[in-house]
Amino acid sequence: MNNFYEHIYQKQLEVFEMPSNKKISSWAVHILDLLFPERNAGGIKSVEDVKLAFGQSEIELEQLLSKSKACEVCDHFRVAQDFFQSLPSLYALMSADAEALIAGDPAAKNHREVIRTYPGFFAISIFRIAHKLHELGVPLIPRILTEYAHSKTGIDIHPGANIGHHLYIDHGTGLVIGETCVIGNYVKLYQGVTLGALSVEKVLSNVKRHPTIEDYAIIYSGATILGGDTIVGHHSIIGGNVWLTNSVEPYTTVYHQALTKFIDSKPLI
After folding, report:
1. Tens of pLDDT along 62-93?
2. How confident is the model at residue 12, as a pLDDT?
C-alpha cells in the first residue's frame, strides 16, 4: 500500500495550485453577468467601472490559464488579451442567439426572459466563450466550460463545433452536438437531437465525424443524424425521431412514420 499512497501524494503535488472546475466556470458565468446585466446586476455605476470589471476578468483569465497547467508553452498573456479583444463579436453572436429564441418561440415574452431563464441561451453562450478559447489554442478549459453548461442544462455542445449565428435551441435537454459538427446560420434544434458520429473509433479523432447542418434547417426532438459526410441541406426539416445517416437535399422534409397500435383495453363485463 505504501507505493499506492506515494503515487496519490505525488498526484496531489502536481495539482496543488490548479484552479478547480468551479472556479473556471465561475469566471465564465461572471463574463455573462457583465455582458448581460439582466442576469445579475453587479453594481456597475460608470463606464470606468465596466472597464475595470472586464480588466479584472482578463487578469483572472490569465491566471486561470497559467495555473491550469494545461499548456506549458502558451503565451497566456496574449491569449487573455486576444480573448477580451473578441468580446464585442462574442456579444453580438450571443445577442443574435437571444433574438432567434425570441423570434422563434411563441412562449418567449421578451429579451430579459430569454436571458434569465432559457437553458438554450445559457448553453449557447457558454459554448461561444469556450469555442473562442478553443480557437485560441487553449486546451482543457473549453471542455470544462461546456461540460459545466451540460451539467446545468442537459445540453452537450463540444467546444470544437463550428456554429453560425442565430442558433435556436428550445428546451434543449438531451441535445448533443459533436466535436466536428458544422452548423450554419438560423438553425433550429429541439430537445433530444443527436448530431453524432457513425463510429467512435479512436483512430478517427482527427477526422470529420459529425454532420453538417446548413442554414435555416429545423431538426425536431429526438432526431438522430450521424456521420461526417452527412449534410442536411438548407431550409430542410427533419421530423421528430428520424434516424438519418445520409445527406438530404435543400428544401427537403423528412418525417418518421411511427407504427402505432391502438388496443381496446376496456374491462370485460
Report:
1. 999 988 877 777 889 999 999 999 999 999 99
2. 84
Of 191, 137, 127, 133, give the one whose Cα is nearest residue 161. 127
Decide: 51 and 34 in contact? Cβ < 8 Å: no
Residue 160: count other Cβ atoms within 10 Å of its Cβ.
Answer: 18
> Grid coordinates representing 237?
426539416
CA proximity to 215, closest of 255, 163, 160: 163
For 213-252, write each residue's pLDDT tens digit.
Answer: 999 999 999 999 999 999 999 999 999 999 999 999 999 9
- Contact present, 192 and 174 (Cβ < 8 Å): yes
208 Ramachandran zone, left/alpha/beta (phi>0; psi -120 to 50): beta
Identify the H or E element spanning 224.
strand 224-226
**What is the residue whose three cell numbers read 427533419?**
238
Task: Give the pLDDT confidence of 208-223 residue by residue, as tens digits.
Answer: 999 999 999 999 999 9
Q: What three-state secondary structure class fits 71? A: coil
H-run or E-run covering 156? strand 156-157
Cell of 132: 473562442
Distance CA 260, CA 241 (A): 14
Eight-class DSSP state of 70: S
Query: Percentage of residues in the chain with pLDDT exceeding 90?
Result: 76
Strand partners, 177: 157, 195
| pTM exceeds 0.90 for this model | yes
Residue 166 CA to residue 163 CA, distance in Å, equals 9
Give residue 258's pLDDT. Answer: 82
Instruction: Give the three cell numbers for residue 157.
Output: 455542445
Is the pLDDT at 162 greater than 70? The verdict is: yes
Q: Quote the CA–CA distance of 224 and 221 in Å, as a whole number.
A: 9
